[in-house]
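Please fill in the sequence for the structure shown.

STRUCTURE ENCODING:
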C-alpha cells in the first residue's frame, strides 16, 4: 500500500531524468559539496519536493539528497527544537 502511494508522486520527480549518482555524494566536503549543491538545484525545481522530503523524514535514516536536503539537514528538521518551531508557526 505505501509503495503504491510512493509511485504516485515518485515518477513526477525532477530527479527521474537525472543521474541517480548525483544525489549520493560520498562526503560532506570538496567536490562532494558541489555535487550536493547540483542535486539540490534539481530538487529546487521539483514539483514533488514536499512529498519527497516528507517521505525522507518519515523513513528516518536515508543517505543522500532527498527533498532538497542532506541527511544532516533532515536530522536537524527532526530535532525537538525544529518540531517545536514548526508547530509554533502553524506549519
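FILLED IN BY: designer on duty
SEQUENCE:
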Amino acid at each position: 500500500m505505501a509503495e503504491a502511494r510512493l509511485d504516485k508522486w515518485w515518477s513526477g520527480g525532477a530527479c527521474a531524468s537525472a543521474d541517480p549518482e548525483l544525489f549520493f555524494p560520498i562526503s560532506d566536503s570538496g567536490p562532494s559539496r558541489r555535487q550536493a549543491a547540483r542535486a539540490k538545484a534539481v530538487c529546487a525545481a521539483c514539483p514533488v519536493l514536499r512529498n519527497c522530503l516528507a517521505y525522507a523524514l518519515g523513513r528516518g535514516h536515508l543517505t543522500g539528497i532527498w527533498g532538497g536536503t542532506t541527511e544532516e539537514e533532515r536530522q536537524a528538521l527532526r530535532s525537538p527544537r525544529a518540531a517545536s518551531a514548526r508547530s509554533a508557526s502553524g506549519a
